[in-house]
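Recall that a protein's primary structure is simply its ordered list of amino acids. Everything else, from secondary elements to tertiary packing, is in principle encoded there. The following example makes that idea concrete.
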Amino acid sequence: MKKVITIMAALLIAMTAYSQEQELTKKEKKKLEKELRKEQEAKDAEMKAQVVALMIEYQRFVLEADRLRDSKGTQVQVSSTINFIASDSITGVIQIGSNSYVGMNGVGGITAEGPVSNYKFTYNEKSKAYNVSYNLRSTLGNYDIRMTVFSDGRADATVSSNWPGQLNYSGYVVPPAQSRVYKGTSY
């Protein structure tokens, strides 16, 4: 009987130790998965930063805006497929549109397209952001574009012209090949 009790006690102790070992393994497994996820996110962020750098350097990008703000601070949520700023190194496009009505350009707004000139950019190491400026000449007028593009792709742009006020675009820059924008008729 003592042997049975001793064997049962040994089994109970072994099972308890085994379950604790499994519990530690689960914790370790979670920790390892978290570390792997962080590593992957860091690699993805680095790759995104390289893509952003190439887009800015080669002047080939589309800022798909999901918010527009006027000079008075009034901000509206907009569709990023019809509100954008684009550059393909030679020509550029500025477009505003609305899903509510049809405008001059066919998408409820205005599309200005023309040659890009005076393209300049600088990189701010501290904020990890590019400051971009260029001019766009179109039949609708001359526009000055000033952009701040962060390494994760977030971007803010200010468009000003000879008309009073300015318009601010906020969204993300993407390579032209990955862009989902629809360009309306330009004049």
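The beta strands are 60-70, 75-77, 84-88, 91-96, 110-124, 129-138, 141-150, 154-161, 166-174. Residues 2-57 form the longest helix (56 residues).
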